[in-house]
Amino acid sequence: MQDGMLCLSANSSFTMKDLTFHLTALLLLLTNLSHVLAAPYWITDNIVGNDFYRAFEWENIADPTHGRVNYVDQATSKKENLTVASLDSFVMRTDFTTVLNATGPGRNSVRIRSVNTYTTHVAVFDVRHMPQGCGTWPAIWETKESDWPAGGEIDIVEGVNDQVPNAATLHTTAGCTMPQSRNETGTPTQLDCDTAVNGNAGCGVHFPTTNSYGPPFNAAGGGWFAVERTNTYINIWFWSRKDPAVPLEVKFGAALVDTSRWGLPTASFPDTSCDIPDFFQENNIIINITLCGDWAGAVFTSDGCPGACVDYVDNNPAAFQEAYFDFAAVRVYQ
What we know:
Layout lengths: L4 E3 L5 E3 H21 L3 E8 L4 H4 E3 L10 E3 L2 H6 L3 E4 L2 E5 L13 E3 L1 E4 L6 E9 L6 E8 L9 E6 L8 E5 L15 E2 L14 E4 L7 H6 L3 E7 L3 E8 L7 H4 L4 E3 L8 E4 L5 H4 L4 E8 L1 H4 L12 H7 L8 E10 L1
Parallel strand pairs: 5-8
Antiparallel strand pairs: 1-2, 3-18, 3-21, 4-9, 6-7, 7-21, 9-20, 10-16, 10-21, 11-12, 11-20, 12-13, 13-15, 14-15, 16-17, 17-19
GO molecular function, one term: hydrolase activity, hydrolyzing O-glycosyl compounds
InterPro entries: Beta-glucanase-like, ConA-like_dom_sf, Glycosyl_Hydrlase_16
GO biological process, one term: glucan catabolic process
């Protein structure tokens, strides 16, 4: 070493200042890496555009919530443009052109269920637009349909008749409850998750911002919803499209995510008095758009919508032009 230089070879040399800089950078890298490795989830399902057609099954079934809809199969959804995929978009919607016969089936719509099932995982839903309008009842959720409610249900996005904000809710068999005080930004509602209590209201959390649902969500350009399920808690986050707090790994669909970097969840469901593995089995992701039914129909008038819900759906097809989801992506990490 001479004149402040460290000779590494005949053709390369670093000043002490350079060496210090690189050692500091390496230390920061190792520190960040150790932080990432504290709670890593690697991407296993990156569902974009046409990938939806292979990653989900179309549920051509009678609506379990008694909505005024007719869930169609995949071929019909494509033929009638109820589902449309492009390189970076998947749109699913209700019919908005047909006046219905009062004695016939409901308005054509779409309900899809993921082929894969999940226990411990993170799922990120990058949504540009969600269904809006009187009579609409859109949902993004997870459950085990064949064993409901024993398999548990996690509602990530759900609401009716454009009533803001979004609510995240758990539905279970008897014995799962939530504490009133939790580390979350949302506001708890009912604390008992039992489907037999209060007409299956579930244990819910109202989100703190109106742009988490319906017309305000769409006006803001959409946003990201994320759920993390472990054996000790279920957490749900929401970031609006222009929210400066959205993690870059969420915004850009990174291959690795670390939820410990994401800040307080919007809704937190700890295992304080709910053994998660006991109440939640391997779940599918379900995305659907129903109309009226047990919830939207029951509060249709009190939510400020005109007339009777079923009549409104039957006779006003143009009212459902905005009743569609536009997904930029669904990404699952495990």
